[in-house]
Structure to design on (239 residues):
């Protein structure tokens, strides 16, 4: 087994995922760019350099998850960091009472079920790491505390598909962290802030460099760092 630290980031062809891969590569990690679009994934890896590799991971196609696990197993024998970054928010701005059920289902499929399945498939490789780290890209919009506070700063950003999927993802973080509490693996949820990306939109105040910082921090936590938490940078967020 090689001693190189290996990080897989899903949805890393653009946005916060690509920047997270860039920052981890700069820290000396061997980074694996998970992306469903081969041309974009390859270009992203090439833009980082020789320590970046493209791997086809389509969150709608679980066959790509086992193929990815086999590839990582064969090439590196272990995985140190999994950043579950790929995500969608197609019901942005919609009322819960009017959102087409198919849109809600699609959001949960990508943001929750696929993510859980990919994590389950990669867990044996993370167990081979001396310091496994799982980072789940949540959002402050997944906070039930804030969604149930009518005056909270999240304002009108209260669609059910996206917010509900991130709340479910937060529960995956909490339950998996409990299960893995006596192992070397830490599991945390990250809120990147409101970031200028295709998802975050032009009006977002943060650039991707700042948006990736929470993911990178949680991916590189020391042995005495937290697990089972929900963070923006080092600030703990209300569930
Ligand atoms: N931007 C923000 O303000 C903000 C705030 C809170 C949380 N977040 C979270 O941060 C994460 C990254 O978001 P972002 O802002 O960087 O968004 P983005 O620029 O839209 O990037 C999303 C990434 O997810 C990928 N993806 C979506 N569906 C996929 C699928 N079925 N299979 C494989 N990849 C898929 C996209 O790939 P394609 O290019 O192929 O679509 C893209 O690489 C998301 O989980 C998001 O919920 C973002």
């Amino acid at each position: 087994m090689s001693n190189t630290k290996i990080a897989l980031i899903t949805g890393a062809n653009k946005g916060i995922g690509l920047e997270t891969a860039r920052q981890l590569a700069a820290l000396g990690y061997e980074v694996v760019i998970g992306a469903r679009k081969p041309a974009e994934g390859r270009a992203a890896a090439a833009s980082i350099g020789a320590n970046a590799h493209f791997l086809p991971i389509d969150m709608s196609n679980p066959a790509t998850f086992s193929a990815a696990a086999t590839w990582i197993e064969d090439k590196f024998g272990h995985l140190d960091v999994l950043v579950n970054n790929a995500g969608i928010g197609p019901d942005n701005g919609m009322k819960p009472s009017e959102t087409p059920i198919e849109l809600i289902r699609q959001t949960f499929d990508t943001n929750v079920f696929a993510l859980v399945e990919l994590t389950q498939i990669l867990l044996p490789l993370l167990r081979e790491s001396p310091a496994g780290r799982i980072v789940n890209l949540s959002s402050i919009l997944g906070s039930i505390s804030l969604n149930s506070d009518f005056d909270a700063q999240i304002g009108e950003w209260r669609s059910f598909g996206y917010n509900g999927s991130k709340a479910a993802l937060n529960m995956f973080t909490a339950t998996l962290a409990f299960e893995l509490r006596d192992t070397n693996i830490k599991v945390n949820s990250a809120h990147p802030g409101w970031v200028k990306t295709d998802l975050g939109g032009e009006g977002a105040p943060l650039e991707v460099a700042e948006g990736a910082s929470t993911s990178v921090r949680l991916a590189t936590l020391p042995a005495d760092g937290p697990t089972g938490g929900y963070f923006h940078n080092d600030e703990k967020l209300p569930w």
Residues 173 and 179 are 10 Å apart (CA to CA). The chain has eight helices and eight strands. Residues 11, 13-17, 35-37, 58-60, 85-88, 110, 137, 139, 191-192, 194-195, 197-200, 204 surround NAP (CB under 6 Å). The chain has a mean pLDDT of 97.
